[in-house]
Design goal:
The complex is a heterodimer of chains A (about 325) and B (about 325). Chain A is α/β, with parallel strands linked by helices and about 325 residues long. Chain A contains ten helices and twelve strands. An eight-stranded mixed β-sheet of chain A has the order 6-7-8-3-9-10-12-11, sandwiched between helices. In chain A, strands 2-1-4-5 form a four-stranded antiparallel β-sheet. Chain B has a domain of about 70 residues. Chain B has twelve helices and twelve strands. In chain B, the strands form two sheets. An eight-stranded mixed β-sheet of chain B has the order 6-7-8-3-9-10-12-11, with helices on both faces. Chain B has a four-stranded antiparallel β-sheet with strand order 2-1-4-5, with helices on one face. The longest helix of chain B has 18 residues. The chains are: A alpha/beta (about 325), B alpha/beta (about 325).
């Protein structure tokens, strides 16, 4: 992957804050990353880390009390955040589609599956699609044609999720954002849905942002990973590099906390408690829970290149990679 | 009765909705010994019957047939007074660490209620001491958490406090229904560690209900795997996870996403287009429509549990019994 690649989506300095009576919560704070043509980027983090907020910022769908504070989101060179509402509407879905969290439960129970897909296409193009187009979409996501006239309750969870993928690709978008697209499914069904997404991605050459919390699924599916903690991207790297040698202590903890199915070993427990998001610590966002926190961590920690293609927001990344950083015990509660 | 098991589930069947209804749990038996505390994992996908089993053991629902005997008590036939006694011995921890708390009360309220309900303490000082002991068992301190409100704690801490609450009653068994599935990955280990500690130091057995085979493998002793209400495979957790025998269990373990980008899923799998209906009239192995090894004989009757190697490792599959050879 050394050849220069086209950047499809360029996010710079994106900040989305939520207003609360006692101050702003910095849900997504100064996020910057590139999405290359045809690649899948994983955006991981725990609940509240700002991954879903970041995507609503990208789609400009932040609703009150949230607001986009700063940043730019360029899709094929056009800054979505600077567009007029009407122009933005045309870009959304036709170029940038979302498979939202719990998408399968967002289907309308009183409408036939085919009508709901036709609705999406009509809303964004003004034209009613022919029946053949809908059957073609079903085929792409591995669904039988007979569900055309069925209602959502007649389908299983995995089938409904694939209907939502069909909606996502209905207008041949450049970018699909899949927010926890498989997380409510049983493992076998999850594998089938993940397989469907990969197939569709390769067939259409579309770029994908996969949001999730499951490092196992990320290892299976994505080309690069961006790790978020409390609103900040703390590391971005190719998936092989991230798992082989994570440079940020939080990435390392996330990877180590995945229980193995091949080796029975002592559990790794991480202590510490996250700061109040209205009042983040000065400097590194992770210092309260970081086993390697040091005085210099009170300085701001921008993302910087540690190795080619690997960026981390940690002043001790080199020591951590070299194994020379001393860890400390962290008290819980 | 020193030799009788602590928990004895005998041929328990649960059917929802009359004789032609849905078989949530099909003639299931399990024993947990009295003298050897264990973490028994109950695993399977959604709708496999694992939560039905948890509810049966907790006495929330009664078996359609069969019997659950705990410490000499027939759980399906307890009066409400006996049920209260029963719940001193069998406690529960549920999935949602957010929904189990009343947001208007401080954390101490959770403990006040259980002490009051079970009349665990005579004086305030004694009650306070019990809370401290319970919290210490899960690695927390009373001074840190008791005065806090639920929203001031992480999901991991809330779930550990639920473990402390259950522990205070000094039960013999804790039914833990998906206790870590809503907790962030980096905090899960702290809860699982508490379960192992309560087993080893508190002598408490667990029914650990989960869909997550990786955590079961890390902490469990025995595992039973359900498929659509029927027992597919059981045994020592290491034997079952490292050497699965039932085709469904093999597929399941193969599908768990491994956190290793150099070991990605191999091959494509398909799901049947239609969901199978699990009425009481269904015969044969429930996995036949998806099984690569399915034969006529599999459809005739539900395969018995055949031994497949290590002691106690058994699979409900004709591949390991005489009936298949006899039919071929």
């Amino acid at each position: 992957m050394t050849e220069p690649r086209n950047v499809v989506l360029k996010v710079r300095g994106l900040s989305v804050f939520y207003a609360t009576p006692t101050g702003d919560v910095r849900a997504t704070d100064d996020a910057s990353f590139d999405l290359y043509e045809g690649e899948t980027l994983g955006l991981v983090g725990e609940s509240g880390s700002g991954k879903t907020t970041a995507t609503s910022g990208i789609l400009r769908m932040v609703s009150s009390p949230g607001r986009i504070v700063a940043g730019s989101v360029e899709l094929d060179g056009v800054d979505l955040l600077a567009l007029k509402e009407e122009d933005l509407r045309r870009q959304r879905w036709s170029k940038l589609a979302l498979i939202p969290q719990g998408a399968m439960n967002s289907l309308n129970p009183t409408m036939k599956i085919s009508a709901q897909i036709a609705d999406v296409i009509r809303t964004h193009t003004g034209k009613t699609p022919p029946r053949d187009r809908i059957l073609e979409l079903f085929q792409m996501v591995g669904l039988p044609g007979r569900i055309h006239d069925m209602y959502p309750h007649e389908l299983s969870g995995g089938m409904k999720q694939r209907v939502c993928i069909a909606m996502g690709i209905a207008l041949n978008p450049r970018v699909i954002i899949a927010d926890e697209a498989t997380s409510a499914l049983d493992v076998v069904v999850q594998r089938v849905v993940a397989q469907t997404m990969a197939k569709v991605r390769d067939a259409l050459g579309v770029s994908m942002i996969m949001i999730g919390h499951d490092m196992g699924l990320m290892a299976q599916m994505v080309d690069r990973i961006a790790v978020m903690y409390s609103g900040k991207i703390v590391e971005i790297a190719r998936v092989a590099d991230m798992f082989a040698r994570p440079a940020h202590p939080y990435s390392k903890i996330l990877i180590d906390s995945v229980p193995s199915l091949t080796q029975r070993q002592a559990l790794r427990i991480t202590g510490g408690i996250t700061h109040d998001p209205r009042n983040p610590p000065k400097g590194c966002i992770f210092q309260l829970r970081c086993p390697y926190a040091a005085p210099q961590c009170r300085e701001p920690q921008p993302l910087r290149e540690i190795n080619p293609g690997q960026l981390a927001a940690c002043c001790r990344a080199e020591e951590i990679l070299a194994g020379t950083a001393q860890a400390r015990e962290i008290a819980d509660a | 009765m020193p030799d009788d098991p602590l928990l004895d589930i005998r041929n328990v069947r649960k059917v929802y909705g009359g004789p032609d209804g849905l078989v949530a749990l099909n003639d299931f038996s399990l024993q947990i010994p009295r003298d050897e505390p264990q973490i028994v994992t109950i695993a399977g996908e959604s709708g496999s019957g694992k939560s039905t089993l948890a509810n049966l053991v907790l006495g929330f629902t009664k078996p359609t047939s069969g019997q659950i005997v705990f410490d000499g008590m027939d759980v399906g036939r307890l009066s409400s007074r006996e049920m209260a006694q029963y719940h001193r011995k069998v406690q529960a921890v549920f999935q949602d660490p957010f929904g189990s708390y009343n947001p208007f009360y401080r954390v101490s309220h959770v403990f006040d209620m259980v002490i009051k309900n079970f009349k665990l303490a005579d004086t305030k000082a004694q009650a306070r001491e019990m809370m401290e002991e319970g919290l210490n068992a899960v690695g927390l301190k009373g001074s840190d958490v008791l005065r806090k409100y639920p929203h001031q704690l992480s999901g991991g801490q809330r779930q550990r406090i639920m473990m402390a609450r259950a522990y205070m009653v000094k039960p013999k068994l804790i039914v833990a229904d998906e206790p870590v599935s809503m907790v962030d990955a980096s905090l899960r280990a702290s809860i699982l560690d508490v379960m192992m500690k309560l087993r080893d130091e508190g002598g408490i057995s667990f029914l650990y209900v989960t869909h997550d085979l990786s955590t079961a493998y890390q902490i469990g002793d025995k595992i039973v795997l359900f498929y659509q209400g029927t027992l597919a495979e059981e045994g020592n957790v290491t034997d079952v996870i490292t050497n699965p025998k039932h085709p469904y269990v093999q597929l399941l373990i193969d599908s768990v996403p491994q956190a290793d980008p150099t070991r990605r899923w191999q091959g494509e799998i398909e799901l049947p287009a239609e969901e199978e209906l699990r009425t009481a009239r269904a015969t044969g192995c429930r996995f036949v429509p998806r099984c690569p090894h399915a034969a006529e004989v599999c459809k005739a009757a539900l395969p018995p549990l055949h031994p497949v190697g290590a002691p106690g490792h058994r699979a409900s599959c004709t591949l390991y019994g005489p009936e298949r050879a006899a039919a071929e």
